[in-house]
Automatic annotation (TrEMBL):
The keyword Transmembrane applies. This is Claudin. It is found in: Cell junction, Tight junction; Cell membrane. Belongs to the claudin family. One of its GO terms (molecular function) is structural molecule activity.
C-alpha cells in the first residue's frame, strides 16, 4: 500500500514539475489585439514576443535582446519566481526520488528516507507558493 502511495505522490510531483516547466516556456502570457481590424494577434511572453497574422496564419517571433535589459517589472518578477519554482521543484523531485522505498539509496535507515520524503514535500510546498 505504501509503495502505491509513494508512486502516486512521485507521479503527481513529476507531472506538476513538467507543467511548471511548460508554463515557463510558454510564449503567450499576455495577449493583445491592438489593431481595430484584428488582422494580427500579438502574444507577449517572458522570453519573446510573437505576432500572428490572422489572414494567412504566419507567425513571427522576436526574442528579447537581453534577459537583463529594461523590461516591465511584472515580467522580471514572473521570470524570477518561475525560475526559482523550477529549481525548487527539480530539487524536491530528486529528493523525493531518493526517499522512495523502492530505491536502494540508504536502504538500511528508513527514518532518513522518510525525512527525505517530508523534506521534498516541504520544498514542493515552498516552490508552489
Amino acid at each position: 500500500m505504501t509503495t502505491v502511495l509513494q508512486m502516486t505522490a512521485f507521479s503527481l510531483a513529476l507531472l506538476s514539475t513538467l507543467f511548471l516547466l511548460l508554463a515557463t516556456c510558454t510564449d503567450c502570457w499576455m495577449v493583445n489585439a491592438d489593431d481595430s481590424l484584428e488582422v494580427s494577434h500579438k502574444c507577449r511572453g517572458l522570453w519573446r514576443e510573437c505576432v500572428t497574422n490572422m489572414q494567412d496564419g504566419v507567425r513571427t517571433c522576436d526574442q528579447y535582446d537581453s534577459i537583463l535589459a529594461d523590461h516591465p517589472v511584472k515580467i522580471v518578477v514572473t521570470r524570477t519566481l518561475l525560475i526559482t519554482a523550477d529549481l525548487l521543484a527539480g530539487l524536491a523531485l530528486a529528493t523525493l526520488l531518493l526517499g522512495l522505498d523502492c530505491i536502494k539509496f540508504l536502504k538500511e535507515d528508513p527514518r532518513v528516507k522518510l525525512k527525505m520524503c517530508y523534506g521534498a514535500g516541504v520544498i514542493l510546498g515552498i516552490g508552489s507558493m
